[in-house]
Specification:
single chain, Ku70, Chain: A, Domain 2, 7-stranded mixed beta barrel, 9 strands, 27% helix, extended, DNA repair, DNA_bd_Ku70/Ku80, double-stranded DNA binding, DNA-binding, SPOC-like_C_dom_sf
Amino acid sequence: MARAIWSGSVSFGLVSIPVELYSATEDHTVHFNQFQRGTSDRIRYKRVNERTGREVPYDKIVKGHEVENGEYVVVEPEELDEIAPGRSRTLDIEAFVDIDEIDPVHFQKTYWLGPAKPEFSRPYLLLAQAMKKTNRAGIAMFVMRGKQYLTALTEDKGILAVHTLFFADEIRKPKDVLDVTPEGRAPRGKELDMAVSLVESMADDWRPKDYRDTYTERVNKLIKAKQKGRKVKVEDEPAAATGVVDLMEALQRSVEASKKKRGKKVS
């Protein structure tokens, strides 16, 4: 069984429910160690005192924030815990909002939230069903591991999910980050009709199990092949950009190919 990464309580109104937080996802990325090329020597990172050159143990390390050039304010871990809202142990729901009003760009990471003990199941299920019936998410703030999070609590098949959200000032506006922004007259006429036909011909139900991390699979194959002294097939180069002149033809051929692919699936 997985271990809870945070424990506390969810409160709404005068109701408080002891809960435990669990990660809802896991990372399957292949992780590498670092070596000096041409040797079997590992590269390691150490916590070193820049003045003495000696390694410093974790329990001797504190945090410092630079306030002026070379001047730091040192803060102890206990001091951070003491100023945390609710002493880091409360998910206090401040409002319930329509789930559909939350822009997906705000979502960061998802966790499962469970009752701390069986006897807390009734108020837990009551909150979950109320949110399901109203299609609303509970907006709450809490502190975990020295960081404050804005979160949205939602219901998922009778289980509460906690989604950490980016704050509004953490969301970049497209115009501030794009080197090239779309310009010119909005598409219309035959090109738009053909593009709509292509989208409709590729319409399908959302089935997450149909998709998998093929890159990680190829990395694992590469590692096994190198271990046995074999070579791995190189992937084809990506398709060249579609020119404006060829756009209509590319759309037409795409619609035809999509319809053929659909026909094979049906048969």
